[in-house]
Amino acid sequence: MATAASPFLYPLHKLDSPKCPYLSLKSHFPPRLSRRFLSSSTIRASSAVITESVNHDTSKKQDQAKEVDFFACPICYEPLIRKGPSGLNLSAIYRSGFKCKRCNKSYSSKDMYLDLTVTSGLRDYTEIQPARTELFRSPLVSFLYERGWRQNFNRSGFPGPDEEFKMAQEFFKPAEGGLLVDVSCGSGLFSRKFAKSGVYSGVTALDFSENMLRQCYDFIKKDETLSTSNIALVRADVSRLPFSSGSIDAVHAGAALHCWPSPSNAIAEITRVLRSGGVFVGSTFLRYTSSTPWFVRPLRERILQGYTYLTEEEIKDLCTSCGLTNYSCKVQQSFIMFTAQKP
Ligand SMILES: C[S@@+](CC[C@H](N)C(=O)[O-])C[C@H]1O[C@@H](n2cnc3c(N)ncnc32)[C@H](O)[C@@H]1O
């Protein structure tokens, strides 16, 4: 049954009603954001809605509503049909079942994350990803990640989570009030900050690693200052994002590009899911910068084997070749944070 609580899932027959949640919601956004939220998310929600059996009794209509969801099938990109409570929050998603009408494939939650990988639910087939992806699926690395592993990045020029978050927020200004996906979120270091900021209408913490997502859930559960009402945990491959084309306002990918099996497929996918004007912000380690002495470069290439460390020029080239515009970046030693926008 549909409830009036969700900006992500809303029965079509209610959209004209004065009780529309966008109109009655006690917004925590400043008026500027509320207007943005009202205009873009409402439009998206209305297009992301409903198939419904014909019934002239309104109350029965609500009970029988089958709702088209914010999440899409990773195989055909058709929006999934959700059965269960609506909303982009942990408990509603956990209690819901999702189905693709076209592929006839069902998706459900495992532990506290929704598994939207192509291999979700398979019993006999297992797939081994490249080592740089597999490494982060380990329970030990997932446990250590926020307990020392990530702090090491500072030695390569990463300014640290608080400063990186501030920089990302600056880049995300045009996407404020919209839906943000934290792709390759790891244990949710930045997803939690984005959700807490109150700047976005919803945050999806997405990763390929089951153990990172379990850690992410543990951190969310322990954090009393974090409301779980606007955050979802999703397992997915960055090269097969489970969202409809043009449905996302902001994509963040912190310290991730070098771990992806194919950065070009990933950036193409990110571009596909962004709406026009949507913003992509990523950070990674550079292979070397223009100031790296020529005799050090081959050495760095040997040390960095196993990861896809790109140069500044390669990252810009990838973004522009996927059709993103307004590219800019900030570099500090091997650290780069870059941004680009969907035209
Ligand atoms: C170094 S961690 C970054 C975590 C966090 N975003 C941060 O800024 O600290 C890289 C993450 O990329 C994820 N990853 C690797 N391959 C992936 C893929 N194919 N799809 C989605 N995430 C992937 C890993 O599971 C890991 O959590």
Structure overview:
The protein has 343 residues and is α/β, with parallel strands linked by helices. It has a domain of 211 residues: Rossmann fold (3-Layer(aba) Sandwich), CATH 3.40.50. It is 32% helix and 21% strand. It is globular. The N terminus is likely disordered.
Summed up:
This protein is an alpha/beta fold and 343 residues long.
Supply the key terms.
about 350 residues; alpha/beta; Rossmann fold; nine-stranded mixed sheet; four-stranded antiparallel sheet; about 20% strand; disordered N terminus; Putative methyltransferase At2g41040, chloroplastic; methyltransferase; Methyltransf_11; transit peptide
Secondary structure layout plus pairing:
Blueprint: H1 21-24, H2 31-47, H3 58-64, E1 67-72, E2 79-83, H4 90-94, E3 97-100, E4 105-107, E5 109-110, E6 113-115, H5 131-134, H6 139-149, H7 161-171, E7 179-183, H8 189-197, E8 202-207, H9 210-222, E9 231-235, E10 248-253, H10 263-273, E11 274-285, H11 297-303, H12 312-321, E12 325-332, E13 335-341
Parallel strand pairs: 6-9, 7-8, 7-10, 8-9, 10-11
Antiparallel strand pairs: 1-2, 2-3, 3-4, 5-6, 11-13, 12-13
Bound molecules: S-adenosylmethionine.
